[in-house]
Amino acid sequence: MGLPAGTPGLAELLRARGFHTVAVSASPVVRKSPTRFNPAGGFARGFEVFDEECLWRKADCVTRRAREHLHRDARPLLLYLHFMDPHGPYAPPPGYRRRFALAHPDKEFIRRGDPNPIANWLYKGAPDPGVTRADLSYLVDLYDDDIAFFDGQLARLLGDIRAAGLGGESILVFASDHGEEFLEHGHMKHCHTLFDTSVHTPLLLRIPGLGGRTVAAPGSQGAGRWRHHDRGPLLVL
Fold first, then answer.
1. What is the extent of the structural domain holding 35?
2. Which of 96, 173, 188, 197 is the most exposed place for a label (fewest CB within 10 A)?
3. Residue 130: inside a domain
4. Number of domains in the chain
5. 124, 149 contact by CB (below 8 A)
6. Would residue 68 count as lying in a domain?
7. pLDDT tens-digit map of 112-164
8. Cα gap 136→206, rounded to integer Å
9. CA distances from 21 to 7, 40, 171, 224 (A)
């Protein structure tokens, strides 16, 4: 896993053109060094800085470490940020004031926002955890709180980008790789179905001088052009 040999990545292309290239990744897959989920690492090619200190941590860690690079270099900046929010376990950090998950479920793993006992029952032969409709509803509410927490962190980061004088000329790209299943089709988490709950995700671009367009047709990047097969809207803001 990683960037294919002989295929230049965006960081390599921009670094060759004088960019300062920085990545901050909380992902166990998109890594410089190996993890259980990616034994080879292999994603750091072309990055002068590949910060892995936020592994599995929440968005406030990623945005805090990203903020450190907004004023450090006079060169144009490529800043790649890989967040894990919202992702199981579905829960904003302690101290965050929840807006949606206000119930008090009996099951401890539901209170933690942990979908794995359900997924292990479905896919690994584990005992049936006896999940109820109310349990699923609480998990969805926690997921929504996790989204709201991430939204707040993203808004702070965008404010920091503007405060650094980079807002007017920066190209901003926001991409989501998947949604989550909550037994809508008999599955849990992701990577099990091609229903909209898993694959209908947004790609948003903010390009100076270009805006106000929504491309409703599904698209994915492949072979240098847009191909219509993956679901999800493209919005140019």
1. 10-92+149-236
2. 173
3. no
4. 1
5. no
6. yes
7. 999 999 999 999 999 999 999 999 999 999 999 999 999 999 999 999 999 98
8. 35
9. 17, 21, 14, 22
